[in-house]
Write a structure and sequence with these properties.
There is one protein chain. The chain is about 35% helix and about 25% strand. It is of the alpha/beta class and about 210 residues long. Strands 6-7-8-3-9 form a five-stranded parallel beta sheet, with helices on both faces. Strands 2-1-4-5 form a four-stranded antiparallel beta sheet. The protein is globular.
């Protein structure tokens, strides 16, 4: 099974700019797939089309065997995503921010939310800092909290847009180790990056 499949995926903006040109992807289930390209090459636009956040000009895309965007309601509850950086309330704690995310998810069971939030925080190594306000988190902690938000529910696929962008070496190591841990649990990880060395260290497959 392929976790992500695209054929001829193309995006041309209204002004005529060709942002994505006939991209074909086959991301094997269970892989850590590096989507590699320089800044401005259309990686984020491609990810937005995969998730139904932007419409393709032409071509097809599937997530977990489900056509997108038509099958978004069936596919997206099985997919966690971090696109263009985390966004949380700075005055709330990490735990309270995740509670807001869980409350916004109509497909989640509110009776199990507290336990699921605790498990997600533990998984990303933030359980001890769960009561700390988000504005006092380091950049690496903020990125790990964003990944935790995508893991409050069990996921089969995790889509990460430049997950180590802007992090110091320690934060990069933390996120890299977390991605490898998530993949070891059987989750397919699709991550974009402009850093060849990062992809080489983390990924089992690569698309350029």
């Amino acid at each position: 099974m392929t976790a992500i499949s695209t054929s001829g995926l193309t995006k041309r903006f209204r002004g005529g700019q060709l942002a994505v040109d006939h991209v074909g992807l086959d991301v094997p289930a269970g892989s850590v797939y590096g989507f590699l390209g320089p800044n401005g090459s259309g990686k984020t636009t491609t990810i937005r089309m995969l998730l139904g956040l932007a419409f393709a000009t032409s071509g097809q895309a599937e997530l977990l065997g489900v056509p997108m965007p038509a099958g978004a309601a069936a596919a997206l509850p099985r997919v966690g995503a971090l696109v263009e950086g985390p966004a949380f309330y700075p005055f709330l704690s990490g735990r309270d921010n995740l509670a807001r995310c869980a409350a916004a998810d109509a497909t989640g069971d509110p009776r199990t939310a507290a336990a699921r939030i605790g498990q997600a925080l533990d998984r990303v190594g933030l359980l001890a800092a769960a009561g700390k306000r988000y504005r006092h988190y380091s950049l690496g902690m903020k990125q790990r909290l964003a990944i935790a938000a995508s893991l409050v529910r069990p996921r089969e696929l995790l889509v990460l847009d430049e997950p180590t962008n802007g992090l110091d070496p320690q934060g990069t190591r933390e996120v890299r180790a977390l991605i490898q841990q998530i993949a070891a649990d059987g989750v397919t990880v699709f991550m974009s990056s402009h850093l060849l060395a990062e992809v080489e260290q983390v990924c089992s497959h690569v698309g350029v």
